[in-house]
Amino acid sequence: MTIAASIKTAQHAHQRLIELVQRYLAGDALKLLARLTLAGVFWRSLLTKVQTVGVFPYTEMINDFAVQRAYLRLPEFPLSLKASTLALFETEYALPLLPIEVAAWMATLAEFSLPILLVLGVMTRLSALALLGMTVVIQIFVYPDAWWSTHALWVVMTAFVAGSGPGRLSVDHWAGRYFAR
Known about the structure:
Keywords: Cell membrane, Membrane, Transmembrane, Transmembrane helix
Distance between the termini: 58 Å
Oligomer: single chain
Main location: membrane
Helix content: 55-70%
Protein name: Putative oxidoreductase
Membrane topology: Multi-pass membrane protein
Shape: extended
Radius of gyration: 22 Å
Structural class: alpha+beta
Subcellular location: Cell membrane
Strand order of the largest sheet: 1-2
């Protein structure tokens, strides 16, 4: 095989790989993955702020001690803030102009509702923009040194979801098709 033929074969393989990636990853699957990942980040933050209930409990032995765990944790209803959440908003998360309880509840309710909307693909662009705003506030007022370690990734995900929309695997898409009739 000549060098020219080898290069031609490599170009063809490269083109085929690009076509496969575009077909299976660049479209709706990537948009869904971005929505789920972004929702997961903020949902996990919610679970640190409120009382939770374990679903599918199990017992794990750690150093001969039985520790109760759960495969899934969900917020306990009605939502109630942990005392540690208010303490964090009083010290580490202190925001200018907002009372502690108002800021804590705003963040908690956003972290509760916006991930649910993202997973379902309801008001997706607006939800992503709200999380982008929240990320900017966290970056400026709470953790200004966390840009490269965390917030840059959140900004890219929120911008991607807000800019590209939810994709066909969303309520937004199906509602748009239904109401466009």
